[in-house]
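User: For a benchmark we're assembling, each entry needs the component sequences followed by a predicted structure for the full assembly. Here are entry 17's components. Please fill in the structure.
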Amino acid sequence: MLPQGFSASGIYCGIKTDASKLDLSLFVSDRPATAAGVYTTNLIHAAPVALDRSRTPSQAIRAVVVNSGNANACTGDRGYQDCVRMAELAGTAVGAKGEEVLVMSTGVIGRFLPMDTIATGITTCRSKLATDNDALVRAASGILTTDTRHKIATRELTLGGRTIRITGVCKGAAMIGPKMATMLGLIMTDAALAPADAQKLLTAATEDSFNCISVDGHMSTNDTVLLVANGAAGGATLTSHDLATFGKVLAEVCTELAIMIPTDGEGATHLVTIDVEGCANRDTARLIAKTIAESALVKTAIAGADPNWGRIVSAAGYSGVPFDPAKVCLWVNGMQLYLNGAPVAFDAKDASRSIRENRDTAVRITFGEGTAALRFWTTDLTAEYVRLNADYTT
Amino acid sequence: MLPQGFSASGIYCGIKTDASKLDLSLFVSDRPATAAGVYTTNLIHAAPVALDRSRTPSQAIRAVVVNSGNANACTGDRGYQDCVRMAELAGTAVGAKGEEVLVMSTGVIGRFLPMDTIATGITTCRSKLATDNDALVRAASGILTTDTRHKIATRELTLGGRTIRITGVCKGAAMIGPKMATMLGLIMTDAALAPADAQKLLTAATEDSFNCISVDGHMSTNDTVLLVANGAAGGATLTSHDLATFGKVLAEVCTELAIMIPTDGEGATHLVTIDVEGCANRDTARLIAKTIAESALVKTAIAGADPNWGRIVSAAGYSGVPFDPAKVCLWVNGMQLYLNGAPVAFDAKDASRSIRENRDTAVRITFGEGTAALRFWTTDLTAEYVRLNADYTT
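Assistant: Structure for entry 17:
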């Protein structure tokens, strides 16, 4: 369900060659909304990232227009002008200024947007705007590329006697590396937020969600997560305790969305949850988790249901994080494989069966360096991933 | 051909289950030799790495014993004692002290060495020692794991009127990441070298060879490259100009050996040479090269003969190296795909055919940050790599 004051639509307008898919979505707030964004840290970033970055945080956002099938990345000045024009077209359609619109694009890199197609598409999108769940699902579908399913998460909470809703959508199935979201995400809420608070809460929520996932470790040029808060639930701008409560629920929504990405990772047969504990701080925990998550040898071992603790602990060993090897312990799916720096006897057949028969794999690795812990999600690496990415076209 | 004063042998003794392969090799100098080593920087390192590190640089090395099929890694105190014992057994066999022997092991992690098998094997190895090329090939084969071919490089040079030979062997096909060799290598020479010089030359040669290759970016626990110089060619210990000349040829041998590793990379259908130019320094050039080389999306694109410049430049963009995106240019197989930050028109079919029809792929990416350049080698990523590593057993 959309939060109050929001409407949405998603259509096929002809950017993708496959007309059975959707490729253009519009999300509209019926009043000016606070908006915050977090973006790829890739030096090579797409036009919509540059545009949105210049427009957030804001108190005057009315719409977000998103196309899939074309990333509008590495397209130079013309690409940036196309992006500005896309915002203008969406603004005109919903009765707002171009500057009050944010843009996201995803798909192939290095091609110019088909602006005529997009102009016609935006008009159609405008005519299909609705507030029901079908409209939300269609809008969430219009932002997908190789994803096999749409990704929506919703929470409701009560603050000051008013019901507040937070609804997020996201996309991503490959070119997913942590350290900025590496995907598209849009979180809408009818809460009233000050721009600086919106930015702070979104940045914090992203840190433990979209920055804790990896499919292939390749950071994209278009990563963007937007938070749009229109205050339609009524009540004053959130502060102090209510703001903190809202932030906690926002983080839940972001985490739920983030996990959907590796769950739908290209070719993946396992969702791998990596718990790293006993670290000096969260940054070192994240670096260890990321190094394990991105090891092709760890990922292929899990694809092959191989409880290969050696690949996991050796990946931790080359992460660059200093630790005492004699204090490392490791569990896979609850079975201890490694204790204080040495392997322990375990039933390899049992461990292998446990990996093979469950889509979820739980890796837990502990160190003796401190109390910081972090949870990270990734996929296994299968021949199907290779096939999909060796043969990729629009 | 072996350098003067060296003999070698390689046998099957029963460490591997497949008796059609070799699994134990012995390299012997007929006199005490100078030895230097470079080792994995992985915090989780194997017993032989700890042992050899404590024994190099040295002026008193008589033999190097190497087993494959078992890495003697993550085996704790018992593993270390086994390693010491292995050196003693080899020393006794060739009439030297245990301390005069270096050890290398490669294969599966976390199992104790079958010491009885190895003891018998070393005696057999002793009886087969020879100086001919067949013996060298067998010794070079006894160190292999999933490699499909043995790896030997030889050079001769004349210094002070004497012919000096440098002969190296190495192994490695997966768990290959740069920043220390991530493989085993042994370079023998009949030149006379001071230990400190040997160490300096080996470290420098490794930097531009074994530290410039990657198959899967996973740094192993056992990486070791040894240089053993016995002076059997006669003449004084090398200094000044002769030492520099020797160092240059040593670097050639290391580079030739290093390239053999991704050439034989698991499942690889392409050897990818990445030239990074116009960087502020070699460290930033290496980081960019490594990030491109380890991108699963770049590697699968090359496997699929896709001239996907977007994946290459976006990998450079998230390498962490600062650069001006508007000065980036890219060529693949000599065809320019990207000029000053924007794609250029090119014949995609031609570019794809060029990748598909050649085993070698040349990627050249230039920046406007300085004059440093670096060459790096990697493989593509195929479904066969995944199959090999999802189903890996001894």
